[in-house]
Amino acid sequence: MRIAFYAPLKPPNHPVASGDRQMARMLVKALEHGGHSVELASELRFYLREPEPKSFDALKIEAGEEAARLTKLWDRDGKPDLWFSYHLYYKAPDLIGPELASAFAVPYVTAEASYSRRRNAGLWADTQALVARAIEQAALNICFTQRDRQGLTDAIPDAALGMLSPFIDTSLFREAPARGCPTRLVTVAMMRPGDKAESYRMLAQALGPIGHLPWTMSVVGDGPARDEVKAQFAGLPADRIEWLGAIEPAAVPDVLYGGGIYVWPGYGEAYGVAYLEAQAAGLPVVAQDIAGVPEVVRDGQTGFLTPPGDVAAFASAIERLLARNDERTIMAAEARRFILEERSLGVAAARLAELLAKIPVS
Q1: pLDDT tens per residue across span 249-267
Q2: Maximum CA pair distance of the chain?
């Protein structure tokens, strides 16, 4: 099929790296891997940081202009077979795809759309109504987590739903995992206020009580909360922590291969692409049993998921893997098998093909 792809939150070619951008790119790769022709329908970033009516009105005008541009393009060159929108939510609705799909009788599909009733206030209620209409119109809404699926089911009972597990391109990882330092902890996360800063805070608190163990840590990430994050770790020995800053995504595997355990609390994680990459490199994970993290880490098999907010339990899980290298080695092997065999690009492409094959295309 010829597929028009759109990611209103962050287009695949956006200059700022993030898990969202990475998954958009992976979806394009998976669709192409399945034999489809994928074209980026629009690079318009329809993202509202705050519920500001003026910003919303301005973006609506831009979306209308993009819809008009695509209408002319499709009238001239022919319409696509399907419209595919990635990651719709209250701050990033799709104001282009639903209108065009309806006008041109093209099936409309979403991936990782979400709906939260607690956001139904003020302008967010209006943007969520747009998301809900898109979900209702969609021939298929592809969910990455059971949490998102349940949210859509509760809000829009008649929505057409399908499941696709979060995945990565495992070709970036070597055929055999490198033998990293088993006591080297690794974290890969942006430094921004909110959930990311809260996860860094918890991580710093957890490392203090296990200072008697011979761990070191590599931290990949940067952002506006850099000073706040580093201040949280000020009480720890400076020579134990390597601050690598922002690096190119292609360089992340080498950092992971040099480590032994991946540590990240995971507040607010939809699922966390970094968890998938860490396990592909053969690192067991220590995270919280929170948000969408259980969708990508198997507790007791590929890592440990601790109770939300329990710093002592989080520290204890890290200590256990540091002290029990045999157990860490077993988990490392299972983590790598899990990702390579169950969460690869090839597996995702096959699942996507299966889901899209059920949609009637004119």
Answers
A1: 889 999 999 999 999 999 9
A2: 69
